[in-house]
Design goal:
A hairpin with a 5-residue loop joins strand 7 and strand 8. This protein is mainly beta. 8% of the residues are buried. The protein contains 2 helices and 13 strands, in the order ααβββββββββββββ.
Length: 206
């Protein structure tokens, strides 16, 4: 189900309203919060509900918005996004969505990234789909780093098997690498190892 022209206009209007609320900090501080929403018939024979919110205060500001649209054939589409700015310099922005089709197939996705005033950073993304026969496939990733170390993880799913890989390194340079695999009908397996900054194998948890 594609997004109709009227939906694009409504979403843009909500985004503009939110942006205008934060364009003037003085006005935003006085208003504190701005919210807009609406429900209307769409070109797919269903209804669309759209909403947007902007808020600002002593602890920072946030803008978020999204929509959910239904079709006459039973299909559903949802998209949403948000951006947060903290007073201490941290920030985060992300979006997500899902779609359910008339034949029972579906998909969902997400992504986001953020940072802290102390030098930390995080990013995440993923997308999964389910076919009309119920089979699921997709992948997701998360990466984080900061003054105390780093963390990376990825997950993939296909043909009844899910694999999750993780790596982490602390401020001393010690690292962990592991993998967990689940296969339908076979069960779960896991392996992992740790090394120091020089590459020597060490006991995990040290």
């Amino acid at each position: 189900m594609s997004m109709s022209t009227s939906l694009r206009i409504a979403s843009l209007a909500l985004a503009c309203a939110a942006a205008l609320a934060l364009a003037s900090p003085a006005d935003a501080q006085r208003a504190g919060r701005l919210h807009a929403h609406g429900t209307f018939a769409n070109g797919q024979g269903g209804v669309t509900h759209a909403r947007g919110t902007a808020a600002s205060g002593a602890r920072g500001s946030v803008v978020r918005g999204g929509y959910t649209a239904t079709g006459a054939d039973g299909s559903v589409e949802h998209r949403a996004g948000r951006a947060v700015q903290g007073a201490n310099g941290g920030s985060y922005a992300g979006s997500n969505g899902y779609m359910r089709n008339a034949d029972g197939s579906a998909s969902r996705w997400h992504n986001g990234s953020g940072s802290t005033a102390a030098g930390g950073a995080v990013s995440t993304s993923g997308a999964y789909s389910r076919s009309a026969d119920g089979s699921v496939s997709g992948s997701a990733q998360t990466n984080a780093s900061g003054p105390r170390g780093s963390y990376n993880a990825s997950t993939t799913t296909a043909d009844g098997t899910t694999q999750h890989a993780t790596s982490a390194t602390n401020v001393a340079g010690d690292s962990y690498n592991g993998q967990t695999t689940y296969t339908r009908g076979e069960g779960l397996s896991h392996s992992g190892s740790c090394t120091d900054a020089a590459g020597n194998v060490i006991a995990c948890g040290r």
